[in-house]
Amino acid sequence: MHEQLGHPGKDTTHEIVKGLNLNVKPGTMETCWLCTVAKAKQKNVVQFSLHKKSQVPGERVFQDLSSMQPPARVAALPRENRRIIVDECTHFKVSHLFHRKDQMAEANCELLKAWKDIGIITKFIRMDNAGENKLFEQRVKSKDWQLGLQVEYTLRDTPQHNHLAELALATISNKGRALLVGANVP
Q1: Which structural domains are found in the chain, ordered by start?
Q2: Which of 60, 65, 94, 147 could form a disulfide with 54 if both were Cys (CB 3.0 to 4.6 A apart)?
């Protein structure tokens, strides 16, 4: 079941199986070889932060963008940039793929406006100071959107300050690699 569910953790697998009332052979879960291989290929990400955690869903979100580069001998991917937004309070993750980095700004504004319309008010967004994020900040403060966000920029080469987004990207990548290893895709 662990593999069929996309390689979630042991506790999550047990909860899903229980929630779906599936009949699964009882016993202990063995270590997943595919997850072990995927974890061996990951980069280390620091897992701590020094700020006070938000207790209100949607109040502070963390954002990061990851470019996906195919091997040189493979044709270009149709969408090469993965943006992830993670809510600090609930750890709810929203991930989207974009052809170009500059497309992210408008999509972020639309997402945060949709949240605002249903009562989830985002006050802070934490991200690095890359060009696409500065474009996003301009759009947030423009007459078109006026979302009233306070942007918190992180310093260069300090992933620990944007840890929730960094860890989410690593987790999604690991699960994807585990699925590819299981399908014998190099």
Answers
A1: 60-171 (3.30.420.10)
A2: 60
pLDDT digits (tens, 9 = 90+) for 47-67: 555 667 888 999 999 999 888
Q: In what order do the strands lie in the sheet with 81-87?
A: 93-98, 81-87, 60-67, 124-128, 150-154
Q: Are 37 and 174 spatial neighbours (Cβ–Cβ below 8 Å)? A: no
Query: What whole-number distance in Å separates Cα of residue 162 and Cα of residue 155?
Result: 9
Which stretch of DSSP H or E encloses residue 163? helix 163-182
E runs forming strands in the chain: 60-67, 81-87, 93-98, 124-128, 150-154
Coil, helix or strand for 135?
helix
86 forms beta bridges with 62, 93
Tokens matching residue 99 = 């052809």
Determine which of 4-8, 81-85, 123-127, 131-135 has the lowest per-residue pLDDT on average: 4-8
User: 166 with 65: CB under 8 angstroms?
Assistant: no
